[in-house]
Amino acid sequence: MEIPYYDKERPDTGLYNGKAGIWLFLASEVMLFGALFSAYVLLRVGAEPGTWSMGLMNQWVGAFNTLILIASSATIVMAWVCLKLNDWKGFRKWKWATVIFAFTFLVVKWSYEWPAKFTHYDITFTNDEAANRVYTEVLGPMYSDQQREAWEKRFDPMALSAKTRESMKFLIDSASTGNAFARRDGINKNDEAWRKRFNEWIENFGIEDEKDLRLAALGPSESERLVANAARFPKVFELLGNTQDNKEWPKLRESALNHFEISDESGLQEFLRRLKSNLEEFAIKNDKEMENFAARINKYPEPFQRQLANQNFNKVQKPDMPLDGHIVGYIDSEDVEHKVGAAWGVPFWSHAFAWRHDRKNIEKEKDKSIRYDEDDRPVYKEGHFRDTFRDKDIKAIILVPAHGTWDPKEKHANSGTVKYAEAKHDGGHAHSDEHGHTVTIAREDISRLSSYEPAHSTFFATYYTLTGLHALHVLGGILVMLYHLLPVSRRVYEKNPVQFTNRIEITGLFWHFVDLVWIFLFPILYLM
Predict the structure, then answer these.
(1) What average pLDDT does the segment 223-248 reach?
(2) Is 38 a member of any domain?
(3) Residue 188 is assigned to a structural domain of this protein
(4) In a domain, 152, yes or no
(5) Is the four-CA dihedral 52, 54, 58, 59 of positive or negative sign?
(6) pLDDT digits (tens, 9 = 90+) for 321-369
């Protein structure tokens, strides 16, 4: 029995069976990846400050893989065109090109990009003292600005720049004096440098006079806020001029209670008394003047003082700000130092692969200090969990800090240039060796150590889910395309060229979908 429309198009839909089937399959794939993308967006939008890593992906690697997949989309179309022209040799040439591009994508992803993340570590600290000690060793005693720059680049790239923060602080100090514009217009030659900065920054923020400066830097007073809020009510002066004997009063009263969220009559009367006093203070006599007054108050909806206080950096405790880098050695409980070298001689592969430690795995004394046994080793909780510090009896690790904590131009594992070799130890202080700089961090100072594996954070869990599922689709496509290059496929082609050409078209549709998914993944994971 011959299956209808097996290799011929239906007259009503213009689709043969295989093409209709692949479109149904792709519709289900759209729902799958659509749900994953939606979950990613919701998780990212709802993430607490300091929990969603950004700027960790190597954009050049992602861009290279994007170009590879775009090229493969072109070559698979060329393979299909060659079949349409009955050019089997041309088909094989372009099909092999597609397979090579796809295989290159997976090699970059699975043998270069992912291993670099599994050997790149974040360390958080047990307390402020430990964090201060390590960051001082790494960056020096005045490390705050550098730490903030590194943290915001990773967790809050939309934060105010250092120059903007500096200008805001300068204008806040100027506004606090109450005579900044008088000083600017003075003739004191010692103020020339100050005057130059002041003029530049008030121009940047559109500040015109002393009142503007106060509103922008410090914010409005309580009286000014009350008047600006009242200006949103359409009949303020009508409300103030009415009495309870007026027949319009009940309607105005009800409207005012709802607008100003006042619960009772006495509260409304107190509000109107304060409002009337404030209007007299600011010499506001009608709705137009009140509207102009409110517009000026609302010109700077969030004063500089509040913006600086509300920066996400200020909401995260210092011990929870991770120091990231690469483990090049460790010291055991016998004070024996062990090097951690490159795996199989590959510079960006390390034997410190997916190490893990969490202070929560250690038993605590009543004062929350670590409990030790008679051999002065920490006592770990019972249960099945992986903790490298327990398994290797690690007392301290030797770390090469990364992401510019030493030098903004220094390379790191994401770019595949860190070399793992023997680390030197000098009693727990930062020093230089063949790695450039290392720092020794004691076990007691470490709250959590984790590589950039899925268990690291919600970000990496979603990153590996999305890119891993996509990579499996790429692998599946490679297997299908290799089957099309086997001798059995040549026999199918010779027996029924139309049927085989349709199979290649269906494979091409799937491959275009795989490429399209990556086009979405690249910007949200690597650029945003």
Answers:
(1) 77
(2) yes
(3) yes
(4) no
(5) positive
(6) 899 899 999 999 889 999 988 887 777 778 888 899 998 888 888 887 8
Q: Does 260 share its domain with 238?
A: yes
Is 276 inside any structural domain? yes
Tokens 């910007």 correspond to 523
Q: What is the DSSP string of 440-464?
A: EEEGGGEEEEEESSGGG-HHHHHHH
Q: What are the C-alpha distances in Å from 141 to residues 132, 134, 146, 390, 428?
A: 8, 10, 11, 32, 16
Q: Which residues contact 505 (CB under 8 A, 6 or more apart)?
A: 19, 80
The answer to whether residues 512 and 420 belong to one domain is no
CA angle 90, 92, 95 (to 5 degrees): 105
Please give the Cα distance from 362 to 470 (Å, whole number). Answer: 38
pTM of the model as a whole: 0.76
Confirm if 102 and 477 have CB atoms less than 8 A apart: yes
Closest CA to 201 of 176, 178, 177, 172: 172
**Helix and strand counts by DSSP (H, E) for the chain:** 20, 7
* Helix ranges (DSSP H) in 108-186: 114-118, 128-139, 144-155, 162-177, 180-184
CB atoms within 10 A of CB 284: 22
Maximum separation of any 2 CA atoms in the chain, in Å? 103
Residues 280 and 181 in one domain: yes
Whether residue 180 is found in the same domain as residue 298: yes
- Express each pLDDT in 39-89 by its tens digit: 999 998 888 887 888 777 888 999 999 999 999 999 999 999 999 999 999
**Domain limit, last residue, from 280, 309, 338:** 309
Distance CA 156, CA 56 (A): 12
CA-based torsion, 249, 255, 259, 260: positive or negative: positive
Considering 262, 278, 309, which residue would you say is the last residue of a domain? 309
CATH number (domain holding residue 75): 1.20.120.80
- Please state the domain count of the chain: 3
Residue 202's domain spans which residues?
162-309
1 three-class SS: coil
Q: Which residue has the tokens 């000083």?
A: 183
382: Cβ contacts below 8 Å, ≥ 6 apart = none
Closest by CA to 329, choosing from 435, 406, 404, is 435
The Cα 308–Cα 314 span in angstroms is 9
According to DSSP, residue 3 is labeled P
SS3 23: helix
Q: Are residues 195 and 303 in the same domain?
A: yes
**Residue 98, token pair as written in the block:** 């597609």
Residues 304 and 383 in one domain: no
